[in-house]
Amino acid sequence: MRDALLLTPGPLTTSLATKTAMLHDWGSWDSNFNALTASLRQRLVALIDGGEHYTCVPLQGSGTFAVEAAIGTLMPRDGKLLCLVNGAYGKRIAQLTEIIGRQVSVLDFGETAAVDPARVAEALVSDPQITHVAVVYCETSTGILNPITAISEVVAAAGKKLIIDAMSAFGALPLSANNLDFDAVIASSNKCLEGVPGMGFVLCKTAALEQASGQAHSLSLDLYQQWRYMEQTGQWRYTPPTHVMAALMVALDQFDAEGGRVARLARYSANCQTLIQGLQEQGLQSFLPEELQAPIIVTVHAPAHPNWNFSEFYQLTKERGVILYPGKLTSAETFRIGCIGALGQAEMQIALDAIAHALKKMDICL
Ligand SMILES: *Cc1c(COP(=O)(O)O)cnc(C)c1O
């Protein structure tokens, strides 16, 4: 039987080919595995048109480990971060920056608006101590798309350095070093690249990394050391996520075969549209206005009905082979449906049918 469809922000549904790529054991010292690492690093740099100026530092762990490593390594100990927040992932960056003992100032836009570049420009003028700015490309807690091109322009104009958490956007939304200035972009294996969970990676300006020796707060989350070791030996510092790497390589082959980022974005956009329209036909409303909605994950208002209960709804859709995701908002009761993963129109229809079935069982007539 097919696994349940994961309509979640990751881990997400992977293809059979990607899963099958994990049926081998790899020695961490072996030249085949080193070649795999080198090739993956190059392919990831190529995805942002990073050319000679950027390098890829992969890191064991989930995406947050890579975010923490990037902030801790790239910021000098006396640096100050301006953290742009419009949801839980932005808040998480502010929190981890504070925990590792770097100064952080938060610019909060609430949960229902995109980051406003004009306010970022003002904040940079009013606080000259700021050295770095962090922004989330697609704020996965709501699905909001942030205007990173305009943000990168004001950050560059102020002479500051930009760190982009592109976790849920990388591989689908546009992101190129040719038209965007940033010191680092962070993403992971298990979102739009449709690999399995277990590693993050940071695409860094090599010049920024070269200056980062001794800055990290942590041994294992030191990207500079990870990078130096990899450059010198071709190997990972500490046990590599061998199966995750093998799966990501095959996932990237499928990404290329599909037609790359543009084709992937087109598939996710179609998924998103089908979902929003199908939900509307059932009387369910998506949370965000169209202009803020990234085609990554859709937040949906919970039905205003006395029978509504997310746990019961979740169980009922699960019985139909569809896994949904709870909401993450403080201001409204919502749930979320992912548009990403190895899923297309047929799967969106299965999800919509499962939702209709669940509402009917719960006696919710909208
Ligand atoms: C998924 C995600 C992360 C990382 O989450 P992990 O659970 O640590 O993998 C970070 N930022 C954003 C925007 C994300 O979507």
Question: How would you concisely characterize the structure shown here?
Answer:
The modification N6-(pyridoxal phosphate)lysine is found at residue 191. This protein is an alpha/beta fold and 366 residues long.
Describe this structure in words.
This protein has twelve helices and 14 strands. Strand 3, helix 4 (88-99) and strand 4 (103-108) form a beta-alpha-beta unit. Helix 2 crosses helix 9 (242-258), helix 5 packs parallel to helix 6 and helix 11 (310-319) crosses helix 12 (345-361). It is globular and about 60 Å long. The strands form four sheets. The protein has a seven-stranded mixed sheet, with helices on both faces. A three-stranded antiparallel sheet has the order 11-14-13, covered by helices on one side. It has helices at 16-20, 31-47, 63-74, 88-99, 117-126, 148-157, 206-210, 223-233, 242-258, 260-281, 310-319, 345-361, and strands spanning 5-6, 54-60, 80-85, 103-108, 132-136, 138-139, 144-145, 161-165, 184-188, 199-205, 297-301, 322-323, 325-326, 334-338. The mean pLDDT is 97. It is an alpha/beta fold. It folds into two domains: 5-9 and 260-361, Alpha-Beta Complex (Aspartate Aminotransferase, domain 1), CATH 3.90.1150; 17-256, Aspartate Aminotransferase, domain 2. Bound molecules: pyridoxal-5'-phosphate. Pyridoxal-5'-phosphate (PLP) binds at residues 9-10, 62-64, 67, 89, 136, 140, 165, 167-168, 188. It catalyses: (2-aminoethyl)phosphonate + pyruvate = phosphonoacetaldehyde + L-alanine. The modification N6-(pyridoxal phosphate)lysine is found at residue 191. InterPro entries: Aminotrans_V_dom (IPR000192), NH2EtPonate_pyrv_transaminase (IPR012703), PyrdxlP-dep_Trfase (IPR015424), PyrdxlP-dep_Trfase_major (IPR015421), PyrdxlP-dep_Trfase_small (IPR015422), SP_NH2Trfase/AEP_transaminase (IPR024169). One of its GO terms (molecular function) is 2-aminoethylphosphonate-pyruvate transaminase activity. It holds the Pfam family Aminotran_5.
